[in-house]
Amino acid sequence: MSNGTDILALKELLPAKKYHDDLMDAIGLPAETRQKIYGGTAARLLRL
């Protein structure tokens, strides 16, 4: 499994997302920070 961001197949994306969610859970990352990691900052900068 690739844990990078160059994932095109859904069958690879879902396990990678779970891996990162589990990691964020383990370190107690706040929801607001997770939202930024998952695209919130890019959306704000692109005014989406």
Based on helices, strands and strand pairing, what is the structural class? mainly alpha
Q: Considering DSSP H and I runs of 4 or more, what fraction of the residues is helical?
A: 55-70%
How many strands in all? 0
State the helix count.
2
Q: Which percent range describes the beta-strand content?
A: under 5%
What's the mean pLDDT score?
A: 84
Q: End-to-end distance, in Å?
A: 31 Å
Main pleated-sheet profile: none
Radius of gyration (CA) equals 12 Å
What is the molecular shape?
Answer: flat
Low-confidence stretches: none
| SSE order | HH
Give an overview in words.
- This protein has 48 residues and is an all-alpha fold.
- The chain has helices at 10-27, 31-45.
- The protein is flat, with a radius of gyration of 12 Å.
Describe the secondary structure blueprint for this structure.
Layout: H1 10-27, H2 31-45
